[in-house]
Amino acid sequence: MIKVLIVDDFQVDRENLTLMLETEPAFQHVAVIGACENGKEALDFMKTLQPDIIISDIEMPVMDGFEMVRMVRQLYPQIKIIFSSLYNEFEYAKDAMYLGGYGYLLKPVDPKELLQCVSAVTDKITSDLKFRKDYEYLSRQLNENKPYLIESLLMSLMYGTAGNDIHVSEKLELLGLDMKDCWYVASLIEIDGFVQLTRDMNIEEKHLFQMMVLSRIREVLGSCCNQLSVSLQQAHIAIVFYYPEAVEDRLSQIHTVLSNILLEFSKSDISLSIMVSGYSKHILCLKFLYEQCLYILRYKYLLGKGKILYSSDIPSSKEKPLFDYNGIEKELRVLLNTGTADEITDYIHNLYLGLPDNSSPEELKGFFYFMMICLQNIVHSNPEGFAGQSELTSPAAWETLVTLETVSDAVTWICECLLTANKCIREREFHKNKVMVEKIKRYIERNYQTNITLEMLSEELYYSPNYINQIFKQETGGTIFDYVTRYKMERAKDMLAVNHIKLYEIAEKLGYNHTAYFSSLFKKYMGVTPKDFRRQLES
What we know:
single chain; Alpha-Beta Plaits; 4 domains; five-stranded parallel beta sheet; five-stranded mixed beta sheet; 22 helices; 59% helix
């Protein structure tokens, strides 16, 4: 039933409208719930009962129709408005439409026009109601299926089928996941001896068994950190950890959480092996982090089960590890900051030449994957230094790496990436040093009348005194003390050109307590005493 409220200051108009709506068979679905004399009375009425439609006059005492509708739009935006008036003027009709009116009836109201107008509004109300019901139904469906949709999205990210950044961002927003612009770490859990454990189970029982393991893992995870978990193919479960801040500070927490999972399952007859990837700041790189976990998983046979395994645990043989992975990353950081192009290129080639001759293609790919992870870790830890170099950390970089067909191509490409990073750092350092020198000079020019010290500059620039002096000398060839003295002597020359300024006054203006000391410095830097310099000017 459609509820109608009539608002008109003329009783006869209110009664005529009520009569038409209540007696016309076409209005059987309409009920008049009230009739008010002005806008204020109507607003008071609606505090207890809201109509679906208001048929309102425009000119009324106390509060006219336009003012009432403005209030209704704020308080009850779902109510539809039909205006009625004696005035057949364009301005009235325009204002009525501007306020969202669904019709404009001229008095005396014609029953056919009233029927046509109310029917149109009724159809709109029915359409809106259907839309709301459909929307609410779809919202319920989304909320009910959200866990499955989240798992589906996570699987597509791991398998590299999630689409581009825009598609992923839309899905994250739809599912209410605050995972954009985070750091990501992937972990792959394998149920040890899955084939033996499920030998006598049918497909459904195997699935239920894996879901039981996932449920227990989720109980351990709880709400201790930002993570999502999903069941993959048989025997595999994935966990994605994500943090808005730098992940280095979270690695120990992740290790603790995973250790708690192993501890929980150690109380049962189920053993788990856990592989942990490096980290990335691009959500589409979850595919590559997952592939790193699969790569680490290949060494489970050698390293043993029931453990947490990292890429740094992977040896090239049973005798010794292939590389000191932590050491390599540290060496790369130093090289990128201080090394030359030749030193960086030689370092990578020497690492490659150190690989065993019998290394498999997978082992060689793993080496280059690790080098790329090291580079991206370095880039992410220094965002200012690598501004504008998104190609070093984008998913496209990984896509390029995995499509290289030869080891020679991979070595060349990795070297090019590292040299690009080295160039960025050097350019930033060069610019930063130039800026620092200019700041030092400006400070000296503003404060040359005082006794400027390195400590004063240190407080001004927030660097150590030794570092400031070192950079200044590196950029200008002289010390800060020399620059300060030379600048003061130049200012002294200007003042010596003014005859009435005494030597002791010049010394004081330059921050020197003793005229003799000032005179000796002037002679040292200018080759003559202040008095002789003034005589030369006068002559």
